[in-house]
Amino acid sequence: MEIIIVENYEEMSEKGADLIAEVVKSNPCATLGLATGSTPIGVYQRLVRRNQSGEISFEKIRTVNLDEYEGLDGENPQSYRYFMNTQLFDHVNVDKRNTNVPSGVAEDMDKECERYTALLKEAPQDIQLLGLGSDGHIGFNEPGSPFEGHTHVVELEESTIRDNARLFDKIEDVPTKAITMGIADVMQAKKILLLANGKNKAEAVKAMIRGEVTESCPASILQRHKDVTVIIDKEAAALL
Ligand code: F6R
Q: How far apart are alpha carbons 183 and 185 in whole angstroms?
């Protein structure tokens, strides 16, 4: 694990964007595993700028997102598909048909999980971007999720619902279920880039890096991946 401690969110975002841009430049047909949430917004802003300036092209890039809320379709502003469109896809030269987010409104969610797992197998992520939950989750793999799991539907933890409530009018509006890549789907990525900032993440960062590898802290599995870069700001690194 390479651990890079930076001053602040801006620096974290710049370095994160550098790493993704490197992958895109070295393989214009790369598959990028992407995340939503507050953490990667600065990275996406920078990737948009670099695309618009002609430094990188997404023309042949394929993307696979980690997760989606159950019950929200892509038109819903709280959905992760909507987030990805508005934060990144609408502003770069990606072919939207090459962008993939698991569906939260499939008629048969079990089939959707199987479809998404197969899609990931067929073109593994050249790089997977991850944020970190304050309880150590990656994707929506909450504590206790099996390390060998593939795409599945999960019940969200109270703490995750509370953390995500800031993006909804009221906490009751936060969906209680989501569809997420499993940990095995994340671990198949050739390269993993995890970003975390703020003191709210300090405990989880410590458990991920210094703790034992245990399903109680899903992110701790990253210790077993051969190519992981963790970029964290000073506050998130405070307990290391
Ligand atoms: C998002 C995701 C989640 C977030 C995590 C951190 O696609 O899978 O694991 O990365 O909850 O969220 P933020 O970045 O909002 O602190």
A: 5
